[in-house]
């Protein structure tokens, strides 16, 4: 198996546990150049809020979308959108990525701005 298949396999385990408890989840995806985050409904059928480094407002704030500062801005932005929708508690789905670096920066920024997970 290649590294992507291994990552997706790890992600499947987490998503199965989150689906079993019927929790709203905060899903993170990262590439070398960007980071994306979505809040997905408990049934998994609807994206409630999203933020990424490809958005015009975020690109104006950071020159590079592939660093921890950009991830922190995305986390803060997503938490603000979630609070606007009345969402406070989510389950963190790191999509098989290590909880380290940009993924951790996004999670910490989301927690600081009111999301609980």
SSE layout and pairing:
Blueprint: H1 3-20, E1 25-30, E2 35-40, E3 47-52, H2 56-61, H3 68-85, E4 91-93, H4 102-112
Parallel strand pairs: 1-4
Antiparallel strand pairs: 1-2, 2-3
What does this 3D model show about the protein?
The chain has helices spanning 3-20, 56-61, 68-85, 102-112; strands at residues 25-30, 35-40, 47-52, 91-93. By secondary structure, it is α+β, with helices and mostly antiparallel strands. It has one domain (3-112): Nucleotidyltransferase, domain 5. Helix 3 runs parallel beside helix 4 (102-112). The termini are far apart. 32% of the residues are buried.
Question: How would you describe this structure in keywords?
Answer:
117 residues, 45% helix, Nucleotidyltransferase, domain 5, 4 strands, alpha+beta
Structural class: alpha+beta
The secondary-structure element order is HEEEHHEH
**Mean pLDDT, rounded to whole units?**
96
Query: What is the third-level CATH name, the topology?
Result: Nucleotidyltransferase, domain 5
Question: Would you report the number of β strands?
Answer: 4
**What is the percent of helical residues?**
40-55%
Largest sheet: 4 strands, mixed
Q: Strands of the largest sheet, in order across it?
A: 3-2-1-4
Distance between the termini: 31 Å
Low-confidence segments, ≥5 residues, pLDDT <50?
none
Count of all domains: 1
Strand content range: 15-25%
**Rounded Rg:** 14 Å
Shape: globular
CATH architecture: 2-Layer Sandwich
Count of helical segments? 4
């Amino acid at each position: 198996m290649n590294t992507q298949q291994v990552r997706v396999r790890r992600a499947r385990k987490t998503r199965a546990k989150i689906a079993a408890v019927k929790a709203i989840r905060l899903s993170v995806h990262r590439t070398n150049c960007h980071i994306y985050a979505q809040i997905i409904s408990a049934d998994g059928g609807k994206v409630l809020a999203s933020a990424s480094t490809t958005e015009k407002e975020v690109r104006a704030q950071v020159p590079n979308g592939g660093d921890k500062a950009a991830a922190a801005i995305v986390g803060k932005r997503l938490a603000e959108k979630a609070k606007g929708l009345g969402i406070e508690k989510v389950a963190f789905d790191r999509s098989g990525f290590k909880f380290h670096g940009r993924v951790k920066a996004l999670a910490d920024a989301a927690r600081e701005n009111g999301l609980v997970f």
